[in-house]
Amino acid sequence: MRYSALSLLLNGFRGNKDWAPAWRHPEPKSHYDVIIVGGGGHGLAAAYYLAKEFGIKNVAVLEKNYIGSGNVGRNTTIIRSNYLLEGNNPFYELALKLWEGLEQDFNFNAMISQRGILNLFHSDAQRDAYTRRGNAMRLHGVDADLLDREAVRKMLPFLDYDNARFPIQGGLAQRRGGTVRHDAVAWGYARGADMRGVDIIQNCEVTGIRRENGKVTGVETAKGFIGCTKLGLAAAGNSSRVAEMAGLKLPMESHVLQAFVSEGLKPFIDGVVTFGAGHFYVSQSDKGGLVFGGDLDGYNSYAQRGNLATVEHVVEAGKAMIPGLSRVRLLRSWGGIMDMSMDGSPIIDRTPVENLYLNAGWCYGGFKATPASGLCFAHLLAKDAPHDTTRQMRLDRFERGYLIDEKGQGSQPNLH
Ligand SMILES: Cc1cc2nc3c(=O)[nH]c(=O)nc-3n(C[C@H](O)[C@H](O)[C@H](O)COP(=O)(O)OP(=O)(O)OC[C@H]3O[C@@H](n4cnc5c(N)ncnc54)[C@H](O)[C@@H]3O)c2cc1C
User: Fold this and answer.
1) Which protein residues are within 6 Å of ligand 1, measured from CB?
2) Which intervals hold domain Rhodanese (predicted)?
3) Where is average pLDDT lowest: 49-53, 300-304, 368-372?
């Protein structure tokens, strides 16, 4: 069923009784051409593009929980392509271009809102770094504007410009950045994939990867053995656990990242704002709540919840940027598991195990990548060759010393 203004009207007249479920709940077949482990944004998008762009429809997405229960439904919804490095920028710009046409493409309202993102800077050195980033973006054809303090003050008069430790000097703006309703992205891709014949199988945890003569032949699951010709892993925070089932040790650590939502307020933050002197980012949802986040919890974990010390730390950074935040009540918070790679950049690559493909290492920033990640992973699975924009996102780059160290932090996964 295609969604349109007409279908809305007609269904309204019929008492909304005729809406078909957005996707089926099939039992698994015994064999698929491609199985994708993980019904998050990346797994569902990959299945969608496999069917739509490459005509491979005998595909299953296996999700241990319900779709959207992982990070795709837990993130702070920010999209942007303000990257510095050659290995990242064209890929994230591809993602942003795909976001721009996504709702029409998969016929689902994902509330894509290009309300802009502004990264504040607080020192001469940081201004120089942001200028360099802005120039690199422009050289790649990506929009970037450097704003001085007065231009920022006009947009956001309530920030603490004269903070003794972190005075605001200006900001780097990407006006095409913004927010997207995250769970709708999972639903839109799930529906689009299902319509093209992909089986989305929920409550189906993968518990083992079967190999014969070194080749992957299928997976052991909560619903029994399911065979496949190719196996794609898109398990985000659980990537290392799943890869271990095929004897692979991944160059990544899992950490908790928390997100927070305040009580509803009248509109006062138009776009996304990030604090440059600490880790804090905030936007305002359409319901009025401030949606914000900051640093990771500092320890490795597979739990989808964090600790109070980090809540205090994040809120402190927020208050240094917006003093008025101290008057706002926090409504709720949650956590998600981040697959932090050693250089902060992702991996979309074949693995040394035959028929096994990996999509992982998204750290803090995988939501914005979802459409490009899905398309490029589908490309890899279909053609056995990397998409042009993911040539550097190799698994063996850590061995070869070709890191994509966007932040220049070195091999320190919890700092990216
Ligand atoms: C609090 C928070 C804020 C964030 N904010 C942003 C942001 O503003 N912008 C941005 O770009 N990114 C953000 N991110 C990061 C982003 O959400 C992730 O990088 C991205 O969602 C990961 O890809 P995914 O959607 O496929 O992951 P997920 O949705 O986590 O999908 C992976 C799926 O695999 C399933 N799975 C795991 N193991 C198995 C198994 N054995 N068998 C079957 N299924 C399995 C999981 O249940 C899960 O559903 C944030 C993350 C968090 C937690």
Assistant:
1) 37-43, 62-65, 69-72, 74-78, 205-206, 234-238, 242, 257-259, 293, 336, 338, 362, 364-368
2) 34-78
3) 300-304
Largest Cα–Cα separation, the chain: 66
Q: Could you tell me the distance, in angstroms and rounded to a whole number, from the CA of residue 40 to the centre of ligand 1?
A: 6
Q: Rg of the chain over CA atoms, in angstroms?
A: 21
In a domain, 415, yes or no: no
- The residues that bridge with 35 in the sheet, in sequence order, are 60, 231
* Any domain includes 260: no
Q: How far is the CA of 236 from the centre of ligand 1 (A)?
A: 5
Full domain range(s) for residue 214: 18-81+83-108+182-251+343-383
- Number of structural domains (the chain) is 1
Q: How many residues does the chain have?
A: 416
Instruction: Say if 407 falls within a structural domain.
Output: no
Cβ-contact 173, 147 below 8 angstroms: yes
Whether this model's pTM surpasses 0.70: yes
Number of Cβ within 10 Å of residue 352's Cβ equals 11
Domain containing residue 368: CATH number: 3.50.50.60
Quick: pLDDT tens for 167-218: 999 999 999 999 999 999 999 999 999 999 999 999 999 999 999 999 999 9
